[in-house]
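Progress against Task 2.4 (sequence-to-structure conversion) is shown through the following example record, which the project officer requested during the mid-term review.
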Amino acid sequence: RQAVVLAPKGLWGHSIASRFRKQFLQLGGEAMAEVHYANREDLDFAARSAASYSADMIFVIAYPTMARQIVPLLKFHQATAKKVYALSISFAGKNDPERDKDLEGVTFCDMPWMMQEGQSVQSRYLSNHS
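Structure tokens generated for the chain above:
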């Protein structure tokens, strides 16, 4: 019911965080806070801040390289009682057991709130990959 959003600074991160908050609120949840990071140097502080909230879950917005660093930091800062969700883009899509072990326990989700009303998944995919 309560989430903390961990997102990169910038238009992409803010846009996805905003859409997540809107959808989560419509479903009866509460986004307690947004924590933003600009680069690798910010990750420890951002993970510690996200872990400090009494939220049920942490929603991670990150590409694979950053996600593989964020998740272990969340565990280090004892966010293990919280469920961690991440965008499907946080997984590189290729099995790499050695590198992917840092993402163990993360639930990956798709982003239906990123589609325009009435837009099919196929048309959304084609518009982003053409």
